[in-house]
Amino acid sequence: SAVSARWLTREMGCDYTRAFRRMFRLLVAAGADQEVVSVQGVLHDLTDSLCRSLQKREGKDVILFNNAIFSHNLDMLEVCRNARLVSVYRDPRDQFVDRRANDKNHWMPPVRFVDSYKLRRERFDKARKRLARTSGNGVLKVSFELFVLNEPYRDSVVDWVFDDDVPERWSLHFAPEVSARNIGLYKGSLSDDELKRMKRALATRRMTDSLAAVDRLAASAAMLADGAGLQDRQS
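Above: the chain's sequence. Below: its structure in token form.
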């Protein structure tokens, strides 16, 4: 967006504009009849240049983007030479409740939301397989509930992201007992009718098994969150 570009120009200065000037020169030099592979090389050069600028500015070895693209638009990863993407998925019942409470643009009724959720998951799975054929296995699908509640699972995700070179202080930025409060939100928030409608709309073997597993995790989450609340009251 224009707002983001203005902020980046202010923060990065000539390093930001130089990368795009170089991209335009390379594209013009390539001509209109160049193959897609050649254009992809130009885009690789652009993203490499921008990431190097961020690394220089921040003094970091790894650049981490939060919510950089929608998971069903994985094809955008082809503009990066060496990227890894973590796609986090949640219990759709919790996701619906969360969006209804906090997203001013939320408008979907429960069943329409489930249809949209399943469509996005299907598009993600197809795009992930397609990308794996052309760019390798640079995409990891992660369960939010498992990441919060299962420490070995969480460690395996972090190892994958950092290619086993994990920063010593990474765990200081994550509090599982706090994130656990976002699991099981739908209980007490959805009416019986809404819950029944969502359950019917989600009624595939895969989704039914997944939700059953999430419900078991949610019971653990409740105990973890209660423990955090007790600790807060005692401190």
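The chain has ten helices and two strands.
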